[in-house]
Amino acid sequence: MSLIKQNDFIASIADALQFISYYHPVDFIEAMHKAWQIEESPAAKDAMLQILVNSRLCAEGKRPICQDTGIVTVFLRVGMNVQWESELSLEEMVNEGVRQAYQHPDNILRASIMADPAGKRINTGDNTPAVIHMSIVKGDTVEVEIAAKGGGSENKAKMAMLNPSDSIVDWVLKTVPTMGAGWCPPGMLGIGIGGTAEKAALLAKESLMQPIDIHELRQRGAKNRIEALRLEIMDKVNKLGIGAQGLGGLTTVLDVKIKDYPTHAASLPVCIIPNCAATRHTHFTLDGSGVALQTPPDLSAWPDLSYRPDAQARRVNLNGITKTEIKRWQVGEVLLLSGKILTGRDAAHKRLIELLNKGEDLPVDLKGRFIYYVGPVDPVRDEVMGPAGPTTATRMDKFTEQILSETGLFGMIGKAERGAVAIESIKKHQSAYLMAVGGSAYLVSKAIIGAKVLAFPEMGMEAIYEFEVKDMPVTVAVDSQGVSVHQTGPAQWQKIIMQKDLE
């Protein structure tokens, strides 16, 4: 029998969340480095390099890997012989640990959790509550698996109730392309099979807590149907040519995890949940001996790389940019942006549209400007701005036509692809959409040399900022003619991969 003290449990949760905010699992870094070494697509290789360099910077500086520091998910396995010395419930202790972690003054983490999700959507301010799954098991310890899951990857979860005779592999290959690139590949796919609808989703999420071991599995060979299925799905998904950030390339997934459970004779529930390039999870056990602290990894596990854009990258001064210059940009081209840009996400766009519809003046002039879809982390110490990577651009698609036509905005910067409606608007207004790499938030923040809030300060990270940037790396994802690299890149690399298979 063990006695778990309240403060030890809370401190262990807080330490784990701080730890995973800036340390990638070493197995993830090793897998990403291997993928980078063999990648042949220049655009994908550049994106993976940014992710690797960003990861090392975060490990050294103890700052978040991604500006989206996630919704906290916790799996608790509580031994039946455990006793507690606590005034709080187990759920309350978890949330107090989350609160302390996200408000740590040396490494402030972004609060992203909204109460009243179908109504006013008010930020809780401390990233609570966590999503908690608890089971009572034999023993006298408490095992904790904890993750911080970004919204971009969580939003791409897919679930289906297949017929028992349907092919799971076929469904996965049909489904993954519909997920777009907003989940920031390359990453992991967690797949849950069986049980009921909610059990399949839980299995998929839990599978993502496992370490990357697909290379070891490939070397020794599959020992059962699930292992064989992992290898088959990974190989076939990578042959889709989606590639890093959806730019086209050899590696879309670094591993495929599968957990299954018995199901009804008439059912075959299947769920896919992707983990992004900001994979964050860890595990610890409490046995009554005190706080369970994480052990920092050796920085030698990170490859010694630095990010230098291609010598052919086009330097762009956004102060006084013209449509004529924008028309010269080619899809897939790397740009280094300098000058002043605005920021704005979903909530800011909604407020701007409401003002336009009322015929009221906007609090900021968008004419001739570029807007960056980002919700940054607050700065600490001598930072101008905390990690400030892009958010998924498709969420702003429904606002794009009205913003471009009524404000004179010149262009947008975000993550992943744009939908057909937004692309048509970009072409119509001879605008441009530029893509920053999801998973390189701290690296991007190094390019920000000035920052101030211009509008909606009450919305926190959703406020409209003005950033001054110097040599911020982006890729032309949709050019003024409406050509999208997220359509041309994967199509090109799927053909290249098919040709390689024939040789």
Primary descriptors:
single chain; 503 residues; alpha/beta; 60s Ribosomal Protein L30, Chain: A; fumarase; 3 domains; five-stranded mixed beta barrel; four-stranded mixed sheet; 15 helices; 19 strands; 33% helix; globular
Task: Describe the protein in words.
The chain is an alpha/beta fold and 503 residues long. It folds into 3 domains: 170 residues, no CATH class; 127 residues, 60s Ribosomal Protein L30, Chain: A (2-Layer Sandwich), CATH 3.30.1330; 176 residues, Fe-S hydro-lyase, tartrate dehydratase beta-type, catalytic domain (fumarase), CATH 3.20.130. It is 33% helix and 24% strand. The chain is built from 15 helices and 19 strands. Strands 14-15-16-17-19 form a 5-stranded mixed barrel. Strand 16, helix 13 and strand 17 form a beta-alpha-beta unit. The radius of gyration is 23 Å and the shape is globular. The model has no long low-confidence stretch (mean pLDDT 96).
